[in-house]
Write a structure and sequence with these properties.
The chain has about 130 residues and is mainly β. It has a single domain, classed as Immunoglobulin-like (Sandwich), CATH 2.60.40.790. It is built from two helices and eight strands. The protein has helices at about 15-20, 120-130, and strands at about 25, 30, 35-40, 50-55, 60-65, 85-90, 100-105, 110-115. The strands form two sheets. A four-stranded mixed β-sheet has the order 1-6-5-4. A four-stranded antiparallel β-sheet has the order 2-3-8-7, with no helix packed on it. The longest helix is centred in the C-terminal third of the chain and has 12 residues, at about 120-130.
């Protein structure tokens, strides 16, 4: 009998990539503000010490790890997916100033604000306004 459930072997191209590396992708919302980009990422069960935000060129990588507790009366209840850590990889471009990034974690909601870089045309327009 054939099965429709793909195995999670690395050789299977149908297997979800997030299952292979032990992370799952959190739900997020991105809002483009006039002076910044705002990300709201849902990471329930994560403490502030477990959040790592890394920028590599135009990419932003957010890794949020849950505290893993081993209980005395532990039983396998197929909770492996629920207990996995979160990782979100976004290509945001080079128009953002990642060095000025601000982040806040409250009640499992990670809020990130990344200011936009000032472009050359904005600088020229500002100079023209100051002269006139």
């Amino acid at each position: 009998m054939h099965t429709i459930i793909p195995s999670l072997s690395p050789s299977n191209p149908l297997a979800p990539a997030e299952s292979l590396n032990g992370f799952r992708q959190p739900r997020f919302e991105c809002t483009d503000l006039p002076q910044a980009l705002k990300l709201v990422v849902l990471v329930p069960g994560v403490e502030a010490a477990g959040v790592e935000i890394v920028s590599r060129g135009p990419d932003l990588i957010i890794t949020a790890r849950k505290p893993h507790l081993v209980r005395v009366n532990w039983q396998a209840l197929h909770l492996e997916n629920v207990q996995r850590d979160y990782q979100l990889k976004l290509r945001l471009g080079l128009g953002l100033d990642f060095e000025e990034l601000r982040a806040d974690l409250r009640d499992g909601v990670l809020s990130i604000v990344v200011p936009k870089r000032e472009t050359v045309s904005h600088r020229l327009a500002a100079r023209q306004r100051r002269v006139a």
